[in-house]
Specification:
Elements lengths: L1 H7 L4 H12 L4 H18 L11 H10 L13 H17 L5 H12 L3 H16 L11 H10 L1 H11 L20 E6 L5 E5 L5 E4 L15 E5 L5 E6 L5 E6 H4 L5 H7 L1 H9 L5
Parallel strand pairs: 1-6
Antiparallel strand pairs: 1-2, 2-3, 4-5, 5-6
């Protein structure tokens, strides 16, 4: 009943589930509060972002898949500069208030939000992942960690909106690569579906695509003896660890979860698994 009342007040499923998670696991309260603040920023901006229009058909998707070239160009992203400035500034404020951004980083990001080069910095951040996807050298020098991390969060509503335009495409299965077919981002979560298939979840735009369930999406290792896993006692969440590249990927099992996977919520719920994987010598 409480969830129904909360949803009736216009709260999203993610907000309802995050608050329930905070009640069940108070040790995650700081992380929950950070993501609640970020979700509110995203909600304010995303409602003003138009659905992008870019051509996508079987022939074009097949070409992109063959070239291993993500579909979305930076020019296709419907960025409104004033909104982006606001999003960058407010994201930095949330990160600093929640202890996720040091004072020096906050000053750097705040200055960037006022600078005429903001959009070009956003382009640099975006193109870096696309260049990595096709094994090309980035066109510009890498951004500082505070700027890159803040832009990743501030750009999320724009990229998520773009993901809506491709999500229902029947041609998406043509993409079999480990990076996102839309923006070239790395997966930072995964979903085990009722069929047993695995979908990767892009850490930048949230798009999901099917990928081999036993292959490491970071180094392409498919030797089962070089991949191990562990899970929570209830089997809802698991971690796959690659012994070759020493990276790990978390997954939610929809067969046991009892609801659709919500990457923001499930990412926070599995923070103890991050700690366990890192203690074993793996990195995200």
């Amino acid at each position: 009943m409480a969830e129904v009342q909360a949803r009736g007040r216009g709260e999203t499923r993610e907000v309802v589930e995050l608050r329930a998670l905070r009640s069940r696991q108070p040790e995650l309260a700081d992380a929950v509060d950070l993501h609640l603040d970020l979700l509110e920023l995203t909600r304010r901006v995303q409602s003003r972002i138009p659905l992008p229009s870019f051509e996508l058909n079987t022939a074009l998707m097949t070409w992109h898949a063959a070239q291993r070239r993500p579909v979305l160009r930076f020019e296709d992203i419907p960025i409104e500069v004033t909104d982006l400035r606001l999003m960058v500034r407010q994201t930095a404020e949330v990160l600093q208030r929640r202890g996720a951004l040091e004072a020096d980083g906050y000053r750097e990001v705040s200055a960037l939000a006022r600078d005429a080069s903001l959009v070009e910095h956003a382009r640099t951040w975006y193109e870096a992942a696309r260049a990595l996807a096709v094994d090309a050298a980035p066109a510009a020098a890498p951004l500082s960690e505070p700027v890159a991390e803040t832009l990743a969060l501030a750009m999320r509503p724009y990229l998520s909106r773009c993901a809506e335009a491709i999500r229902q495409s029947p041609d998406l299965p043509a993409w079999t690569h480990p990076e996102c077919p839309l923006c070239g981002g790395e997966p930072d979560f995964s979903v085990i579906q009722a069929s047993g298939d695995r979908q990767l979840v892009c850490g930048r735009c949230g798009l999901r695509w099917t990928f081999d369930p036993v292959t490491c999406p970071y180094c392409a290792n498919s030797d089962r003896s070089a991949i191990s896993s562990f899970s929570t006692p209830d089997g809802r969440y698991r971690v796959s660890c690659c012994h070759v590249c020493r990276r790990y990927l978390k997954a939610a099992d929809e067969r046991r979860l009892g609801r659709p996977v919500l990457p923001v919520v499930d990412g926070v719920a599995t923070l103890p698994l991050d700690a366990a994987a890192m203690q074993r010598g793996y990195t995200a």
